[in-house]
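Database export, one record per block. Field names are fixed; values are copied verbatim from the stored entry.
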Amino acid sequence: MSTSGFVSRLETLYREYVERHDTSAFLSEVGRYYTQATLLRLAFSVSVEVRRAVVLALGFLGDYEANATFGRLLKDDDRSVRLLAENGIKNVWSRGGNERQRRALRRVMRSIAVGNFDEAVRLANILLEEAPRYAEARNQRAIALFGLKQYEEAIEDSAQVLEINPFHFGACVGIGHAYLQLDEPFLAICAFHHALKLNPNLELARLQIARIERKLKTEE
């Protein structure tokens, strides 16, 4: 199929999805006709419907190889593309490693969800011994360390996340919150600005900056 044929079919599939809101049918048809490599090539099409379709599909079907593409689409001109990219990139962050490592990551995340931060750190340590460059495993350990009020260690982990995955705006936000706990407002502002540079849609980060700056002015 020609590039124009791929584009027109994807536009049609997306329009049908918008009309019917049948996610399963949309993903089934996309998976039938498109590989991830083809979707990645179409991710910066001039057609906004194609870009929306690509980012929607990759959010469900894509793996970590789509990370950089999602990172670029966070700054797309179209708001729907940006929002879909923000959700989708978080999904692919968890799809690194092999299946066994992904299961281990889910155990870490479940421990965090119920507030068992010590167990989350223990499980993350085991996983990172095997896969030290699994960025999301390190990010989840940072979250658990923050929960244990080990803020400097959380910052160190989050900084390493960004070395491995420079699109991880969540790690920047985590650094910002940790610096706030350490009473380092200027460093917190820098971290939140970095997060916004990666993902301009982070209104909470923008609000945090404004709040910190207001507080600093009152203390002058």
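Remark 1: The chain has three domains: 3-93, 97-161, 167-220.
Remark 2: The mean pLDDT is 94.
End of record.
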